[in-house]
Automatic annotation (TrEMBL):
Presence of the UniProt keyword Transcription in the record: yes
Keywords: Nucleus, Transcription
Family per record: Belongs to the SPT4 family.
Protein location: Nucleus
Segments forming domain Spt4/RpoE2 zinc finger: 16-92
One Pfam entry name: Spt4
Species this chain originates from: Stylosanthes scabra
Top-rank taxon, per record: Eukaryota
Regions that span the bilayer: none
Function: May regulate transcription elongation by RNA polymerase II. May enhance transcriptional pausing at sites proximal to the promoter, which may in turn facilitate the assembly of an elongation competent RNA polymerase II complex.
Protein name: Transcription elongation factor SPT4 homolog
Length: 115
């Protein structure tokens, strides 16, 4: 069963942001309009301030994943269960504590970045 893919970034300039939980990469406007396909519980499309809290422009590298379940790179990056899309290799910021609490309440795993 194939998952519906995430939006592909419409630009690869400075407006790109990565979700701090799943590392999905899209533009700020795309997160504001449709949220994060892997993290709908953050409700970014309903609260535009949340886009800034849940995403970061500071990340390293990107990878496009077409079939996460069959990709060794997706498994290695721990994104094998996410929707097809564009992801960053690493984020350097941690999810704020109040958003980590939302993850816990939803029984969603959050792995903070390594320092």
């Amino acid at each position: 069963m194939a998952s519906a893919p995430a939006q592909i970034p419409t630009s690869f300039g400075h407006e790109l942001r990565a979700c701090l939980r799943c590392r999905l990469v899209k533009t700020y406007d795309q997160f504001r309009e449709s949220g994060c396909e892997n993290c709908p519980f953050f409700k970014m499309e309903e609260d535009h301030e949340r886009v800034v809290d849940c995403t970061t422009p500071n990340f390293n590298g990107i990878i496009s994943v077409m079939d996460p379940t069959r990709s060794w790179a997706a498994r290695w990056l721990r994104i094998g269960r996410f929707v097809p899309g564009v992801y960053t290799l690493a984020v350097s910021e941690a999810l704020p504590e109040d958003l980590q609490t939302i993850c816990e309440d939803e029984h969603i795993q959050y792995v903070p970045p390594k320092r």
